[in-house]
Structure formats: structure tokens, C-alpha cells
Write a structure and sequence with these properties.
The structure holds three protein chains of three kinds. Chain A is α/β, with parallel strands linked by helices. Chain A is about 35% helix and about 25% strand. Chain A has helices at about 50-55, 75-80, 95-110, 110-125, 140-155, 170-190, 200-205, 240-250, and strands at about 5-15, 20-30, 35-40, 65-70, 70, 80-85, 160-165, 190-195, 210, 220-225. By secondary structure, chain B is mainly alpha-helical. Chain B has two domains: about 1-50, no CATH class; about 70-280, MetI-like fold. In chain B, the strands form two sheets. In chain B, strands 1-2 form a two-stranded antiparallel sheet. Chain B has a two-stranded antiparallel ribbon with strand order 3-4. The longest helix of chain B is centred in the first third of the chain and has 36 residues, at about 70-105. The two termini of chain B are about 20 Å apart. The mean pLDDT of chain B is about 80. The longest helix of chain C is centred in the N-terminal third of the chain and has 35 residues, at about 45-80. Chain C has helices at about 5-25, 35-45, 45-80, 80-95, 105-110, 115-140, 145-150, 155-190, 200-210, 215-240, 245. Chain C contains eleven helices and no strands. Chain C starts with a helix and ends with a helix. The chains are: A alpha/beta, B mainly alpha, C mainly alpha. Chains in contact: A-C, B-C. Chains B and C meet through helix 1, strand 2, helix 4, helix 5 and helix 9 of B and helix 1, helix 4, helix 5, helix 8 and helix 9 of C.
Chain lengths: ~260, ~280, ~250
């Protein structure tokens, strides 16, 4: 099975050679298998968002290689091999919810009928069909994020990239959206790279948690999570807490520079 | 460095304007262009559009034979009008500020007065001019009788108070609720909150408002002079010279340039004030 | 309803006070006519007010449309070519400080004195600045999340402008238009004072004042105010129509 994402010897330096040079990432090796859910976790400034943007080809690497779906990242972006969701939903206020979800399809040149059908399907998936004709300012933060996820999945991408999408939401909404996300990923079989700085969130969602060190960012730990099918009980289970402890220890094991 | 760029841009713009003017004179027909019987493009002959050089030269020549050079006449007129502008601007800005403070303090006053403040600006000045001039005839400041230029200053103030009132109101209301709550937690009264929170928070709104008010004061003074028939100011000059435009085309442009410079002078004063105030803040 | 009460009270109260002061104080009409006298004149001259209002309104409208189109076009050019944009803002600010109305006599010279174009040009210039400044501001502010999103779709250049910049700038365009709409009416009316074709409200105001028929002059002023309000309301209505998403917020 071809890996969804492969990173080899990846490094990123901002403003190389200048006084304000920043080594964001060095020596990153990572493989995300097809259908896997991988979380990136680490202290602020460890480069996890940068890593996500490197995979998304929004930022060019300084060294190393990245392949997405077996292609170089640039081609992957042009071929729309992934969908991305940010911490801000980033919906267009001037478009209805439905037309927001249709956006990537429009850009691909899908026909009107196709777009409508696909957008309807996606909105059903996130449970917002009733709000298709509303405008984003009328929706709550959680609902807006769901629309953003529906939009990210609209082109049925094999890979989903998420940068702390639930960061701005309250705990109850977060937990609910986590369950929804897992259900969607299971149904569509997408591989996911999920950036977060919440330990419970990382453990609950992932097959693997990638622990990163502060700048210059490196991968210090790869923790496999095996909790089986997630349910209400999972959040109280011993396995869940054990996983949290493992991740916490791995994070604490990093000496934060004085 | 930035100042240099700004000056260069200004000079560049003026040069571009002059070039466009002369270029149009060169290619435009002497009679302009008539489309469907309507003159769409202006006449380009020397009577309607004198050469830039001619206008500049006219500044040095006297108004009538054996008088002061026009440059001097225009300058004196500008200074005359400047008095009305300055007083009008000052009084208008003050009234606008007071109004904004009162409207911020009492929401009822804001709801009741704001629509009329906005409405006041839809009344064309020319209607008010005779009324204001008439009132002036009956008033006197102490023993000092009402002068015509004071009527003009009143009209200028009338136009100037509006941008300040509206802009400052928005500025005074701009601090986020958390800041107001903080002051409340310090048991700071309304006055302290005004001085320590609202006024400093409103400076970004103050200067754009003052710029608009300055420009409005100049327009008010010019139109005010015309509608009250006040002699000695630049407004009067513009009208007088425009009546002689067919005989002496460059003259009206000299008056126009004077009025334009007046506007720029006021803008420059506001700019300097802004610069001075911002230097005190460490950005 | 509570929100409307204070202005209504102030309005009615103000009018009543006005009437009282003028009648009781026996103020001469040339200082300030009574509201009742103004209303009487308004009713008597309503046909003329309508006709001249239409003429001034047409001038204002033509100037408004022309100035708005120019302002939007210039803002688009200024946001596209950064150098132009940087240079244009201080120039626009400086030009805005000049009394535009003083251009009227020159324009009358450049065109015939029987042409409506000078007044329309003055309106267009007055309208240009608020529309230009506000539109430019709208075009320049782009949510960074939107930028990243469109990058991820490999959508740039004109597509980005069409789908993100322009719709995002619309609310700002309408802010400029709202300001410009009432300015347009005033400019159209006041421009008439400088000579040229005298078929609008401005000319009637001045001729009535010159004949010391002050209640009549004020009646025409009321007409001008109403015209200004109509333009403002139309701009507001257009805004609601074109930006439906703001209303629902």
C-alpha cells in the first residue's frame, strides 16, 4: 500500500543567512500510511504548523523531500490531492454555506449539478443540511468549523490536513466534533495529519501521535495508539489514560530551553 | 527617507498633472469634442485652458494696470480667508468634540441628536448664509461689533463640526468592553475613564476627522464668502475673476490656485499636529 | 420603537420650539422663517420644487455614477500596481483637502455655460474620493486564512481577485457610496451658485434669497434635504440588496 505521505530528511529554515534566521525544522522523517490518522503535538514554536504547511505546499522546504500520494507536493497541490482546514474556519461571508462547500469544486470546473450534489452530500455528512442556505455569520463557531471540514472533504481527497481546527471551540463542542471527524474519516477512508496541542485530543483521535521538540523542531517520539473503535467509554478507559500519560511523559522528557 | 518619498510623490503628481494639462491642450480640439450635440470634452483653446506657463506668469502681473501683482492680491485674500478658516475650524472642532463627549455620555442624547447632526449637513450652505449674516447684524461680542468675516467663520464652523462630532463619537466608543470593565473595576468614574481611556483610544479617529474638518472649513469659508458677499477673501476673488474669464482667462486660475493652496495649508497644519502628537507615543 | 423615540421627540420638539420662537419673538422672516411659513411655501411651489429637484437629482446621479465608477476603477488599479497605490493615497488625501467647489467657474468656462456637464464633473470629483479611499481599503484587507485556503487550491491571480478580493471589498465600496450619495446632492446644488446653467434647486434658492422671499428659499432648501435623504436611502437599499450577508449577521 503506497504511503499517503512520505517525508525524508525534511528541514526548513526561514530567512537563511540573515540576522533573523530561524531553523524551524530539521531532519524530519515520517511516513503516514493510507487511511491512518496521525497527530502532530508539541510545545508552541516546535514547527508543527510549519510541517503541515510543507506537506500542503504552502511553504517550500529548505532540504529533504516530501511526497504526497506518490507525487511531489507541488503536483499534489495542483491535483488537489488533499483538503485543508485551519484554526479559523475561513468561510467566505458573502457565500451561503452551500456555496462555501462548493468552492473547491467550482475551482476544479465541476458542473453545477455535480457541485450541488456533492455539496449536499458533504453537508449531510456533517449534519448541516438544514443550514445550506444560511450565511456564515449566522452560524456558531462549531458549525462554521463543520462547514470548513465539509469543504475540505468536498473533492473527496485521499488526504486531510488539519491545523488545530477545534482550537477555538469549547470543550463540549470539541469532543462532539472529534467523534464526527473520526466517523467521517472511517467512512471515507481518508488519511489525516492533525496538528494539535491538546494531549487528550491527540490520543483520542489518532493511530499515531508524533511528538515534536521545540525549535529547531525534530520528531522525538512516535507513539502508537491502539484503542480500537472509539466510543463514550473510550474517554474513561484505562487505555486512554495510559496513552495520555505516555504522550505527556514524552513531551515532558523534552528539556525546554531556559 | 519616508518624508523624501512623500515629497517626491507630491512633486511627481504635480508634474504629471501639468503634463496631462498641456498634452490635452496639444491634442484637444480648439472647440473641444462634441458628441451628439453635447460638448463632451472641454475646449482646449487658450481662452478656456490657458497654458500653465501663462498662469504662472499672471501671478507676477498686476490685477489692473498699475496695481499690485496678482500674486500679492491672491495672497492677501488667502490670508483674509485664513482667519475665517482658522476660527471656524477651531470653534467647529471644539463644538464637535463637546458634542461627541455628551453623546457618548448620554446614549439618549446620541439617539436623539445624531440623526439631526447628520441631517444638518444636507442643508446647502447658501440657504444659511443670509440667515447667519442677518443674525450677525444684531449681535456683538462684548463691545466688538459683528464683522462679516465672523459670519463666514460661523459657516465654516458649521461644516467643520460634523466630521469631528461623528469621528470622535466613534473614537470615544471604540475601546473594547473589557477595557471599560477594567476601569469600572478600579472604581474609576466617568471623567477618569474619559481622560485615561476614551480620549487616548480615540486619537486614531481624531486626526482623519480633523483633516476632513479642515477641508470642510475651507470649503465653508469660500462658499460662505460668496454667499454673504464678503469682500476681501479668496471666495470673492474667484467669483470676480471668473466673471472676467473670457477677457482674462489666466486670472481665474490664479485665484483657484490660491484657494487650493489654502486647503493644502490647513491639511499641512493638521499633519504637523498629528506628527507632533505621535512622536510622543513610543510606537 | 424605543430607538426611534428620542429623535422623533427632538424633531417634533425642535420644530415646535422654532415655531414658537419665531412667532412669539416676532422674528423677522429674513433671519429665520417659521416652519409653518416654510411649509406653506413648500406646498405652493411644489411643482417647481419637483422639476428643479429632478434636474439637480439628475446631475447628482450622473456625477455619482461617473465618480463611483472612476473611484472603483482607480482603486482596483491602485491595489494591483503597488507603486501606484502607495503614491495615490497621499495624492488623493491632498486633493481632497482642496475646495473642489471652486472648480465650478473654471469648468463653466471650459464647457458652454448652458451645459450641465460642469456641475456633473464637480459632483463626480467630490464623489471620487470617498469611493476611491474606501474601495482601496476594502481591496487591501484580505483575511490571511483566505489567502492560504486559495493557495491550497492553487487558485491565484484573477481567480483570487474575482472570488475573494472583490466580494470582500463590496461592503467597503458601499460605505464609500453612502458617504458619496449625500455629498453628491450637496455638490450638485451648491455648484449652481457659481453660474452656469440654472435649472436646479441651487438657482432657486439663491434667486428666492435675492428677492428676500426667505420662506420660499427655505422651502427649496427643504427640497434639497429631501433629495439628499432620498439618495442616501437609495444607497442604503442598494447596499442591502448587494450584500445580503451583512444583514443576517
Amino acid at each position: 500500500m503506497t504511503a499517503a505521505v512520505e517525508l525524508k530528511g525534511l528541514g526548513k529554515v526561514f530567512n537563511p543567512g540573515r540576522a533573523d534566521q530561524v531553523v524551524a525544522l530539521t531532519g524530519i522523517d515520517l511516513t503516514v500510511g493510507s487511511g491512518q490518522f496521525v497527530s502532530l503535538i508539541g510545545p508552541s514554536g516546535c514547527g508543527k504548523s510549519t510541517l503541515l504547511r510543507l506537506v500542503a505546499d504552502l511553504v517550500p522546504p529548505s532540504e529533504g523531500t516530501i511526497t504526497v500520494a506518490g507525487k511531489p507536493v507541488r503536483k499534489a497541490r495542483l491535483d488537489q490531492e488533499y483538503g485543508i482546514a485551519f484554526q479559523q474556519a475561513g468561510l467566505f461571508d458573502w457565500r451561503t454555506v452551500r456555496r462555501n462547500v462548493e468552492l473547491p469544486l467550482e475551482l476544479r470546473g465541476a458542473s453545477r449539478a455535480e457541485r450541488r450534489e456533492r455539496a449536499g452530500e458533504m453537508l449531510d455528512l456533517v449534519g448541516l443540511s438544514d443550514f445550506a442556505g444560511h450565511y456564515p455569520p449566522q452560524l456558531s463557531g462549531g458549525m462554521q468549523q463543520r462547514v470548513a471540514i465539509a469543504r475540505a472533504l468536498a473533492v473527496h481527497p485521499p488526504l486531510l490536513l488539519m491545523d488545530e481546527p477545534f482550537g477555538a471551540l469549547d470543550e463540549m463542542t470539541r469532543e462532539r466534533l472529534q467523534d464526527e471527524l473520526l466517523a467521517i474519516c472511517a467512512r471515507t477512508g481518508t488519511s489525516t495529519i492533525f496538528v494539535t496541542h491538546s494531549i487528550p485530543e491527540a490520543v483520542y483521535l489518532s493511530d499515531r501521535v508524533v511528538v515534536m521538540s521545540p525549535r529547531p523542531g525534530r520528531i522525538t517520539d512516535l507513539i502508537e495508539i491502539d484503542l480500537g473503535e472509539r466510543s463514550e467509554a473510550t474517554r474513561q478507559s484505562a487505555g486512554f489514560f495510559a496513552g495520555i500519560t505516555k504522550v505527556r511523559k514524552a513531551l515532558r522528557g523534552i528539556e525546554v530551553p531556559a | 527617507m519616508r518624508g523624501l518619498r512623500a515629497v517626491a510623490t507630491g512633486v511627481g503628481a504635480i508634474l504629471a498633472g501639468v503634463l496631462l494639462w498641456e498634452a490635452y491642450k496639444w491634442i484637444g480640439g480648439d472647440d473641444g469634442s462634441i458628441l451628439f450635440g453635447v460638448r463632451v470634452l472641454p475646449r482646449a483653446d487658450d481662452a478656456a485652458m490657458p497654458h500653465v506657463y501663462d498662469v504662472l506668469r499672471r501671478f507676477g502681473e498686476p490685477e489692473l494696470a498699475g496695481g499690485d501683482p496678482i500674486g500679492l492680491v491672491v495672497l492677501k485674500a488667502c490670508l483674509f480667508t485664513l482667519r475665517s478658516v482658522a476660527v471656524g475650524f477651531g470653534v467647529g472642532a471644539l463644538i464637535g468634540l463637546l458634542l461627541a463627549v455628551v453623546m457618548q455620555r448620554f446614549r439618549v442624547v446620541e439617539r436623539g441628536l445624531l440623526p439631526y447632526v447628520i441631517l444638518s449637513q444636507t442643508v446647502p450652505l447658501i440657504a444659511l448664509a443670509p440667515a447667519i449674516a442677518g443674525w450677525g447684524g444684531k449681535l456683538s461680542l462684548g463691545s466688538y461689533p459683528w464683522q462679516p468675516w465672523m459670519s463666514v467663520a460661523t459657516i465654516a464652523a458649521y461644516l467643520a463640526f460634523f466630521p469631528v462630532a461623528v469621528g470622535m463619537l466613534r473614537g470615544l466608543q471604540s475601546p473594547p468592553p473589557v477595557a471599560e470593565e477594567l476601569m469600572h473595576s478600579y472604581a474609576a468614574g466617568w471623567w477618569h475613564t474619559l481622560v485615561k481611556l476614551r480620549l487616548p483610544a480615540s486619537t486614531p479617529y481624531l486626526f482623519p476627522a480633523l483633516r476632513l474638518a479642515g477641508a470642510a472649513a475651507v470649503v465653508g469659508a469660500v462658499v460662505g464668502e460668496i454667499s454673504t458677499g464678503t469682500r476681501g477673501g479668496i471666495g470673492r476673488l474667484v467669483i470676480e475673476y471668473s466673471r472676467e474669464a473670457t477677457a482674462d482667462p489666466a486670472k481665474v486660475y490664479t485665484a483657484m490656485v490660491g484657494a487650493a493652496l489654502l486647503g493644502l495649508a490647513v491639511a499641512a497644519v493638521v499633519g504637523i499636529a498629528e506628527f507632533a502628537l505621535n512622536r510622543r507615543r513610543t510606537v | 420603537m424605543r430607538r426611534l423615540l428620542p429623535p422623533i421627540i427632538v424633531g417634533v420638539g425642535g420644530l415646535a420650539l422654532w415655531e414658537l420662537i419665531v412667532k412669539a419673538g416676532r422674528v423677522a422672516p429674513f433671519i429665520l422663517p417659521a416652519p409653518s411659513a416654510i411649509w406653506e411655501q413648500f406646498w405652493l411651489s411644489r411643482d417647481v420644487i419637483w422639476k428643479t429637484g429632478l434636474a439637480s437629482g439628475t446631475n447628482a446621479l450622473v456625477g455619482l455614477v461617473a465618480g463611483a465608477l472612476l473611484g472603483i476603477g482607480a482603486a482596483m488599479a491602485a491595489s494591483r500596481f503597488r507603486l501606484l497605490g502607495e503614491a495615490s493615497i497621499p495624492v488623493a488625501a491632498a486633493l481632497n483637502a482642496l475646495p473642489i467647489i471652486a472648480l465650478a467657474p473654471i469648468l463653466n468656462n471650459m464647457f458652454e455655460s448652458t451645459s450641465s456637464i460642469p456641475r456633473r464633473v464637480v459632483v463626480a470629483i467630490v464623489v471620487f474620493f470617498p469611493v476611491f479611499v474606501n474601495t482601496l481599503r476594502g481591496l487591501r484587507q484580505v483575511d490571511p486564512t483566505h489567502r492560504e485556503l486559495m493557495d491550497s487550491y492553487a487558485a491565484g491571480g484573477w481567480t483570487f481577485t474575482r472570488l475573494v478580493r472583490l466580494p470582500g471589498a463590496l461592503p467597503f465600496v458601499f460605505t464609500g457610496l453612502r458617504q458619496a450619495s449625500s455629498l453628491a446632492v450637496i455638490a450638485a446644488v451648491v455648484a449652481e451658485y457659481f453660474g452656469g446653467l440654472q435649472d436646479g434647486l441651487g438657482s432657486r434658492i439663491t434667486s428666492a434669497a435675492a428677492n428676500t422671499a426667505y420662506p420660499r428659499a427655505w422651502a427649496f432648501v427643504v427640497g434639497a434635504c429631501v433629495l439628499g435623504l432620498v439618495f442616501y436611502a437609495a444607497a442604503l437599499a442598494l447596499e442591502r440588496l448587494a450584500t445580503p450577508w451583512r444583514r443576517s449577521a
